Amino acid sequence: MTALDSGARVWASLAVAPSGELIFVVAVLLAGALAGEFIAATTRLPRVVGYTLAGCVAAAFGHGVTMPLNGAAQVVCDLALGLLLFEIGCRVRLRWLRRNPGLAATSLAEALLSAIAVALVLRLLDVGWQTAVACAILAMPAPAAVSGRVALELGAEGQVTQRATLLTALNTLYAVVALTLMRTWWAADDGGSLSQALMGLTGSLLTTLALAALLAVAVHLVGRRLDLRNESAVLLLFGLVAFAIVAARAVGVSTLLMPLLAGLLLRNSSERPWVWPRHFGTSGGALVLMLCVIVGSAWTPQILFAGGFAALALMAARFVAKTVAIVALASWAKASWRQGLALSITMTPLSATALVMLSELLRAEPSLAAGVVPIILTSIAVLELAGPIAVQLALRLAGELPPAAQAAPHHKEGRR
């Protein structure tokens, strides 16, 4: 073999095209980052709006993600949402609900009333009852990504910010459990054995709880020996949470419920707060960026046309129900009506949590979930874009933005 032939072989090996999934990840990261910085430089809107716009442009040109999620999109959504829900769980002190029963009542009321309102409105539009119930459950949770990212970027602090975190954790918990129960009900209704379905449900929940407990114990042990504010310790923590999420996906349990329960167990088994960089620093921030781009791209013009009026009715019913419940119970929950109104607006977005739940429903019950897809994806497409702006306005209404953010919020994150 000549030297020339050897050189040709080397160059050929170096010129091997990267995998499609790697190209997808790089493209999503670059597009989201560029769009986010453009929005930050030219407007006073949060960077999340730019991330979502990048996804919307990709979808408009036919390059959005397909449902159910798979490949790199599935991995990014699992990891990003899992990290966010674990962090949210670690910030929720359940003792707060015992001291403030009005807040517990608010959580139950806003989740239940919004689900009932959505189901009834869709039934009035002649949507099938199974589709209406599924849409009602998927519309129940507020997004972990949007409200948390906007609050972080703008430096928001206060009662509304804290209560939004609590309500997001709880209504996500309600929605995932309700979706699991609905799938069990459908399995029995299709001729399956109810006892077998319930046994499978019990086994799934116990496995989820066991994985959550193992993750909580592992993080607790790491936290006793390392300073979680240190970059190296944060990377170890990131790895533990990511490994648990991969394990949850491998054994077939909820990648939403497991990290949320782990965070709740960790926070409420110890008196001290758990402190580390928000969203696990740069790594978690990159995942959240990609998550927002992916969610923003999860539609097509055909889906928007099919979802149409039913999606608009869902969004209106959901917002009115959540607002009525939260504002009506504001005084009992030891909040002013202004804080109640601001809190209800922070619950407006519908985002990645609903998208992942829809993906799981499509994978498990494709025929029954087919009617849900256009309604939920249209709602996500609208509220994923309008949601960050609504959250920003709500935090400003509540007076929880620092003076610098009131004047120029898009520069806040750069100074952190």
Give an account of the 3D structure.
- The chain has a single domain, classed as Na+/H+ antiporter like fold (Up-down Bundle).
- It is built from 20 helices and no strands.
- The chain is mainly alpha-helical and about 425 residues long.
- Helix 4 (about 70-90) crosses helix 13.
- Helices cover about 75% and strands about 0% of the residues.
- Mean pLDDT is about 85; it is low at about 10-15 and about 410-415.
- It has helices spanning about 5-15, 20-40, 45-60, 70-90, 95-100, 100-125, 130-140, 145-155, 160-190, 195-225, 230-250, 255-270, 280-295, 300-330, 335-345, 350-365, 365-370, 370-395, 405, 410-415.
- Report the sheet-strand fraction: under 5%
In helices, the fraction of residues equals over 70%
Number of helices, counting only DSSP H or I runs of 4 residues or more? 20
Number of strands: 0
The CATH class is identified as Mainly Alpha
In terms of per-residue confidence, which ranges show pLDDT below 50 for 5 or more consecutive residues?
Answer: 10-17, 408-416
Order of helices and strands: HHHHHHHHHHHHHHHHHHHH
Instruction: State the end-to-end distance.
Output: 58 Å
**How many whole angstroms does the radius of gyration measure?**
22 Å
Please tell me the CATH architecture by its name. Answer: Up-down Bundle
Mean pLDDT: 86
User: Can you summarize the main beta sheet?
Assistant: none
- The number of domains: 1
- In the CATH hierarchy, the third-tier topology is known as Na+/H+ antiporter like fold
Structural class by sheet pairing and helices: mainly alpha
Shape: globular
Transmembrane segments: 48-65, 71-90, 102-125, 131-152, 164-186, 198-222, 234-260, 280-299, 339-358, 370-395
Pfam family, one: Na_H_Exchanger
Main location: membrane
Subcellular location: Membrane
